[in-house]
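Async update (no meeting this week)

Hi team, since we skipped the sync, here's where things stand on the single-chain job. The sequence we agreed to prioritize is pasted below, unchanged from the tracker. I ran it this morning and attached the output directly underneath so nobody has to dig for it. Comments welcome in thread, and please keep replies under the output.
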Amino acid sequence: MLEKEQAKGIIEALLFATARIIKITELQSILEMTEDQIKQLINEMNEDYKSPKHGFEIIVINDGYQLTTKSEYYEYLYPAFDKRIEPKLSQAALETLAIIAYNKKATKFDIETIRGVDSSATIYKLQEYNLIEQAGKSDLPGKPMLYKTTEEFLKKFGMKSLEDLPDLPRFKMDSNQQIVIDDLVEEIEKNIEAPSPDMPEINANLNKIDEKEIKGEEDNG
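Output:
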């Protein structure tokens, strides 16, 4: 049985070296400890990390953990990243992300029905940025591919799961009874600031969406 402090050191080393979300089941296997024991260790580690002498904290994402930079230190890290290579998330990308996130899963047809335009390139780019991924095939005719948001998406929005999303916006309809999502995207864009140091290739710091900041209107005709 590992000593408590040694186990903490191993957890810290694993999270730092892998720079990814590590499932609690992985930690259980490596440390030969129970889930409750690991959770207790991580809680104690985060208590230690609260000291200003530490620049990191461990965040929970679904059933895993990741070591990440404390948000209060972001401004000091930005100059260290080369901003010349940072593509921006377009309005099309933001629209597509919102549709997939709020529907949990969506097909390309679902996305294009709401947006009214071809979304092939946007879907490809979001997969490239690891913000969405394939989630099997729909039972609809033709078995179209389903897409869902990733754990990376949750991390960038500061959420533990999609249950943390604000209440579903009440979209309004235009004269052709098409959903209007411009208002939603406009509000999302307001929340996008400087790039996150954990993902410098995307020119957006996707902070947690505040429930009060996403609003829609329902037009019943």
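Quick observations from my side:
The longest strand covers residues 56-61.
Residues 4-69 form a domain with the Arc Repressor Mutant, subunit A fold (CATH 1.10.10.10).
Reply here if anything looks off.
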